[in-house]
Specification:
Elements: E1 3-7, H1 11-22, E2 26-31, H2 55-68, E3 72-75, E4 80-83, E5 89-92, E6 97-100, E7 102-105, H3 119-122, E8 127-128, H4 131-134, E9 143-146, H5 150-160, E10 166-169, E11 183-186, E12 190-196, E13 199-204, E14 209-212, E15 214-217, H6 224-231, E16 235-236, E17 239-240, E18 253-255, H7 266-286
Helix pairs in contact: 1-2, 1-7
The structure holds flavin-adenine dinucleotide.
Flavin-adenine dinucleotide is lined by residues 7-13, 30-33, 35-37, 39-40, 43, 45-46, 77-78, 106-108, 221-223, 257-258, 264-267, 269.
């Protein structure tokens, strides 16, 4: 049986799961917490309700319908994607790796970038959002990762293969991460990032600083563009580019909902989830 992974249990992911499960496909939905919709107290602009309905109720009803059709829901954060030699997509959590025939990114709108002075100005000039893409440029040199969760550690472990020292900068956020091998944890609040010659200076609130070759941003959980980037899909700003059938251009990888930009509404997420599922079904029947 073909296996599809849907990353995200919002309206886009759940909508796609209904079509896929009804086509006899093994569907797993993994999500790292609430859908944006669960924050909405009252929805009055979605089809089919005579009275306002809460976002939570829409999600719960959506999930229970999908479960009835055999869709499996799991909690977890996907931190990396990779295509193996047999063209399967490997999906990684911090502790596990699984293979799928197709993956749908339904991860919602991209998290905000950390609000750190100098960050925007250094993007592409030593500040990167993708270890796999840019580690090469800092081979043999110290680097830093901004973040405090599993995604930050995942990026740090990758960078530690080619950098003598990786410092995870939590920017004073709570963390359960601990130092290991050549990975350090620094919990100081960051005041500013600057470029000095070939180095990036990370200046802390207490006036101290460290010097690194590159800074990798991995704050919060891995977002759609972080994951799309790993497989080489096109991104534009904070959104994943797709064709009208929600195909990213990377075989087996699709995206739907807020992560593709445009109208950030339930009706559009539900439509795109359905469109992606129809395209995935066609792809799996051909391959
Ligand atoms: C307060 C508020 C009110 C709103 N009111 C309305 C309204 O009245 N009408 C309307 O149409 N729309 C409304 N919206 C917008 C609507 O909620 C979104 O358009 C819709 O939820 C988008 O669906 P989605 O499936 O694309 O993403 P989301 O619903 O955001 O779901 C994304 C999912 O991806 C998961 N995820 C992200 N990254 C990862 C990862 N790396 N690993 C695993 N899981 C991951 C998240 O945990 C989440 O489950 C509102 C939104 C908010 C915040």
């Amino acid at each position: 049986m073909k296996r599809v992974l849907i990353i995200g249990s919002g309206p886009a992911g759940i909508s796609a799961s209904l079509y896929l499960a009804r086509a006899d496909i093994d569907v797993t939905v993994i999500s790292a917490g609430e859908s944006a919709l669960e924050k909405a107290g009252k929805i009055e602009n979605y089809f089919g309700f005579s009275e306002a309905v809460s976002g939570k109720e829409l999600i719960e009803n959506g999930k229970s319908g999908a479960k009835r059709l055999g869709v499996k829901f799991r909690e977890g954060e996907i931190v990396d994607l990779n295509i193996d030699a047999n063209n399967k997509i490997e999906a990684y959590t911090s502790s596990n790796k699984e293979e799928f025939d197709c993956v749908l990114l339904a991860t919602g709108s991209q998290r905000k970038k950390p609000d750190i002075k100098g960050l925007k100005e250094l993007e592409g000039k030593g500040v990167s959002y993708c270890a796999v893409c840019d580690a090469f440029f800092h081979n043999g040199k110290p680097v830093a990762v901004i973040g405090s969760g599993s995604y930050a550690m995942h990026e740090a472990v990758y960078l530690a293969q080619t950098s003598p020292k990786v410092t995870i900068l939590t920017n004073h956020e709570n963390t359960e991460l601990s130092a290991c091998d050549n990975i350090d944890i620094c919990d100081k609040k960051i005041a500013e990032l600057t470029n000095v010659g070939n180095l990036r200076h990370v200046i802390f609130d207490d006036g101290s600083h460290i010097e690194v070759s590159g800074i990798f941003v991995a704050a919060g959980i891995a977002g759609s563009t972080d994951l799309a980037n790993k497989l080489g899909a096109f991104i534009e700003g904070n959104t994943v580019k797709t064709d009208k059938n929600m195909f990213t251009g990377i075989p087996g990888l699709y995206a739907a909902g807020d992560c593709t930009g445009g109208l950030l509404q339930v009706s559009k997420a539900v439509y795109e989830g359905a469109a992606a599922a129809m395209e995935i079904i066609k792809y799996l029947r051909k391959n």
